[in-house]
Amino acid sequence: MALNIDGYTFSLDSQISRRPVRYRNRYGIEMAADLYMAISLDRSLRYPGIVVGPPHSGVKEQGPGVYAQELAKRGFVTLAFDPSYNGESGGAPRRLTSPEIFAEDFSAAVDHLGSLPFVDRDRIGSIGLCGSGGFALNAAQVDTRIKAVATAAMYDISGVKRDGWKNQGTDEQRRALLKSIAAQRWKDVDEGAPALEPTFPSEFDIEELDPVTAEFFEYYVTARGRHPRSVGAFTITSEAAHVNFGAVRHLEDIAPRPILLITGEHAHSRYFSEDVYSRAPGPKELVVVAGARHIDLYDRTDMIPFDKLEEFFLAAF
Fold it and tell me: What is the rounded distance in angstroms from the CA atom of residue 148 to the CA atom of residue 281?
């Protein structure tokens, strides 16, 4: 799947209208998003809406657009957005990652969608892909306008430690991480600019990588999902904000609004969805897609359960 001439990793369906929109979040940052709807949509009526956030380091031209388009074909008005400081959205320094602001970005997307005269403000839901899954849940914990929240291949970024992709860090490791970030802040002060983590490489040798990194590179580095604004490098000092944030600390505040957690049978991230499912009071549903890996839930329209998503949101509204 090579990057199309329009800059997207997927083709626009002939039945669907897509137009760029701009609006601001409550921090005053200009957000860049794409609005999707059926060309045949009668704008004299009001329709349910869904906002879609990208994987951590992803952009709207990748997976979020895939979801937004497919759900627009099913009668929803959808909005796929770039997080603050990333993609075409505003904010400086670039490539900053903030769990609080990324959660706010979902609420800002709801603001914009609900401002459209053909969207029913009482029927707006959200979908978070990968890292946005944790941010979408966090936003729903405090923003009761989000009537239902779904995640796909969810990651809780605040639960990821440097000893691996699982939340296995000890308190000693956590303190060591904070100490290293503090040292990096002094380096940033002396350099006059924040240092970035490594960007995605232009090519890679799969034999030299661990399975999780190899899977991510299969999407972000190859023609399947590569995009010039999705480079993988965040400011190193951003990590401190995630350490103490706890994106899914108050899941009980989402109830009685429903949660749908979609994960893959072979997804390395599967335990994140299972953990949220075990702790959320409900209503809730866990869908495990047979044969699917983590990245397959980014763009594999033959594997992503869009029928279930449609059913879930319509029932919630």
Answer: 14
